[in-house]
C-alpha cells in the first residue's frame, strides 16, 4: 500500500529553501570531499597514536628485527600503509581506503598458517654453531606456514566518535545552502 501527500507551500522563502536542498542533494561531491578528508585525517591519527582503541604491541621478535618504532609506521607518512591512506569523493558517498594488498591483514588480523604454506629453496651457505665453529649447510627445501605467526587485528580504518559531529556539520551546511 502506498500513500502520497501533496503539500502546497505558499511561503516563497520556504519554497526557495526546499529548492536549494533539492539541488544540493543531487550532487553531494563538495560535502563528501570534507567528509572523506575528515575520515582520512582521523585514520592517520589512528596510526600516529597507535590505535584508538590501543593496538596490541609488537611482538618481541618484530621489535628486535625492527629495532623499535611504532606499530604499522615503519616509514611514517612517507610510504607504507599509513602513507597510502587516501580519500575520494563522489556524488553520494566518500570512500577512504588504501591500495596496499596487506591492509586487510592488519585491519582484521590473521592466524598462523591461515594463508597456507610455501616451499622454498635454501641455498648452500655457512652457518656458525654455538661454539663458534663454521659449518657448511647444503642446499635444501624448506616449507613454512604463512603467516609464520599470529598477526593481531589492528583496525586502523575507524571513524572516531568525535568525527561524527564534524561530518554532520559539513553535510548540514552543504545541504542547507551554506558553503563547505
Q: What low-confidence regions span 5 or more consecutive residues with pLDDT below 50?
A: none
What strand order characterises the main sheet? Answer: 1-2
Our count of domains comes out at 2
* Count of DSSP H/I helices: 6
Order of helices and strands: HHHHEEHEEEEH
Distance between the termini: 40 Å
Radius of gyration: 26 Å
Oligomeric grouping of the chains: single chain
Mean pLDDT value: 87
Helix content: 25-40%
Strand content: 15-25%
Structural class by sheet pairing and helices: alpha+beta
- Care to count the β-strands? 6
Shape: elongated
How would you characterize the largest beta sheet? 2 strands, antiparallel
Structure description:
It is built from six helices and six strands. By secondary structure, the chain is α+β, with helices and mostly antiparallel strands. It has two domains: 12-101 and 156-175, no CATH class; 110-150, no CATH class. The strands form three sheets. A two-stranded antiparallel sheet has the order 1-2. It has a two-stranded antiparallel sheet with strand order 3-6. A two-stranded antiparallel sheet has the order 4-5. The model has no long low-confidence stretch (mean pLDDT 87).
What's the short story on this structure?
The chain is α+β, with helices and mostly antiparallel strands and 180 residues long. It contains 6 helices and 6 strands, in the order H-H-H-H-E-E-H-E-E-E-E-H. Strand 1 and strand 2 form a beta hairpin.
